[in-house]
């Protein structure tokens, strides 16, 4: 089991290393001068050079990559010489501890990963991500709960009514849900439920989890704003879960022990719930865990359309302003979340099913 866990963690680290490399190379070939974006168009050349040196932009690309890895790594290697490109900037790392020294000026430190600073707000990217992480987590959790409930329910109904009009209608719904892009469905759902029949539903076209009351009562939680974006984000998972549940239920319902239970005179709902469904849900649970990681990482368009101020909203806003540190930090954060969740799922199934450990 230890070897199995070590392999999964190693694979996850390799995936993250690949993501870091691609993100760095991609955003360093894009046009634009970060120093001028920080200082403004009227900045003098001397100030620009100081900012470029502070950001490491005066160094070759290979050294910039080493600096970037040093910033991201919990254990990083620096130099106490101010002229060295790996100089230990104490203002950059608020909380760090020295592990050991090497050579005359080298020092290794343990710290929290540093994701740089925003070009527009000058705040640390990690602080910005932390401010909006809760909204994205709540949205993803609500979406996967809705998707799991509706998807499993529709999948069971579809399997029990195989080749009937209900089965065909549900399959059509699932194909439609998988085919429609999230940004398009978000616009339609927001317009229809928030505007066309908004007086009936009482829902807003846009809104976030935390909003300020117009009467001056301060910030308040608006759970009603969660309904439409959660339904929209859950459309694709509903379709996938429904099809997977239907396929798994059809396979289980054809087993001998199900026919034996029916022959003994047990009611259909007892057979379905107590015998068939619990065995049919194993692959569904695996799919749901992976979908949750995807939802947590990929709610960009849905959050932007509904004005839901989560990580996706921040990333979209940063893209429009060409705020590269925010975009890079957001991509790395979502990739890390995705990898960590998948590692935890693999380990859980390795504990539950010893056969998986040998794969």
Description:
The chain is mainly alpha-helical and 359 residues long. The protein folds into 3 domains: 34-69, no CATH class; 74-112, no CATH class; 125-358, MetI-like fold. It is built from 15 helices and 5 strands. It has helices at residues 2-28, 34-39, 45-55, 61-72, 125-160, 165-179, 182-196, 198-201, 227-233, 235-253, 256-263, 268-297, 300-306, 311-321, 324-352; strands at 75-79, 96-102, 106-111, 210-212, 219-221. The strands form 2 sheets. The chain has a 3-stranded antiparallel sheet. The protein has a two-stranded antiparallel ribbon with strand order 4-5. It is globular, with a radius of gyration of 26 Å.
Distance between the termini: 12 Å
> What is the 3D shape?
globular
Low-confidence stretches: none
Main beta sheet strand tally, sense and closure: 3 strands, antiparallel
| Order of H and E elements | HHHHEEEHHHHEEHHHHHHH
Count the helices. How many?
15
Judging by the overall fold, what is the CATH architecture of the largest domain? Orthogonal Bundle
CATH topology of the largest domain, anyone? MetI-like fold
Q: Helicity level, as a percent range? A: 55-70%
List the helices and strands and how they pair.
Elements: H1 2-28, H2 34-39, H3 45-55, H4 61-72, E1 75-79, E2 96-102, E3 106-111, H5 125-160, H6 165-179, H7 182-196, H8 198-201, E4 210-212, E5 219-221, H9 227-233, H10 235-253, H11 256-263, H12 268-297, H13 300-306, H14 311-321, H15 324-352
Helix pairs in contact: 1-4, 1-15, 5-6, 5-9, 5-10, 5-12, 5-15, 6-10, 7-9, 7-13, 10-12, 12-15, 13-14, 14-15
């Amino acid at each position: 089991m230890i070897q199995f866990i070590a392999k999964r963690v190693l694979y996850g680290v390799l995936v993250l290393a690949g993501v870091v490399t691609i993100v760095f190379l991609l955003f360093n070939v894009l046009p634009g001068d970060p120093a001028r974006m920080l200082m403004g168009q009227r900045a003098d050349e001397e100030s620009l050079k100081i900012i470029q040196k502070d950001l490491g932009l005066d160094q070759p690309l290979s050294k910039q990559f080493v600096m970037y890895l040093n910033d991201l790594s919990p254990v990083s290697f620096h130099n106490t010489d101010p002229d060295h490109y790996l100089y230990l900037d104490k203002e950059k790392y608020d909380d760090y501890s020295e592990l050991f020294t090497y050579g005359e000026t080298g020092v290794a430190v343990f710290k929290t990963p540093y994701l740089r600073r925003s070009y527009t707000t000058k705040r640390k990217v990690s602080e910005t991500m932390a401010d909006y992480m809760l909204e994205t987590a709540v949205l993803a959790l609500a979406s996967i709960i809705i998707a799991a409930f509706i998807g499993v329910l529709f999948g069971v109904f579809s399997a029990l009514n195989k080749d009937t009009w209900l089965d065909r209608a549900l399959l059509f719904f699932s194909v439609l849900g998988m085919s429609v892009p999230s940004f398009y469905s978000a616009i339609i759902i927001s317009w229809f439920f928030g505007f066309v029949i908004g007086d009936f539903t009482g829902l807003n076209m846009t809104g976030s989890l935390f909003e300020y009351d117009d009467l001056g009562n301060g910030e308040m939680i608006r759970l009603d704003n969660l309904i439409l974006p959660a339904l929209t984000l859950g459309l694709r998972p509903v379709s996938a879960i429904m099809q997977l549940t239907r396929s798994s239920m059809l396979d289980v319902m054809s087993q001998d022990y199900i026919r034996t239970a029916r022959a003994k005179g047990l009611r259909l709902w007892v057979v379905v719930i107590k015998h068939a469904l619990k065995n049919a849900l194993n692959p569904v649970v695996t799919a749901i865990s992976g979908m949750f990681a995807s939802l947590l990482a990929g709610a960009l368009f849905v959050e932007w359309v509904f004005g839901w101020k989560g990580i996706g909203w921040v990333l979209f806003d940063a893209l429009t302003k060409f705020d590269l540190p925010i975009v890079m930090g957001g991509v790395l954060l979502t990739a890390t979340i995705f990898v960590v969740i998948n590692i935890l799922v693999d380990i859980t199934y390795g504990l539950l099913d010893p056969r998986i450990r040998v794969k």
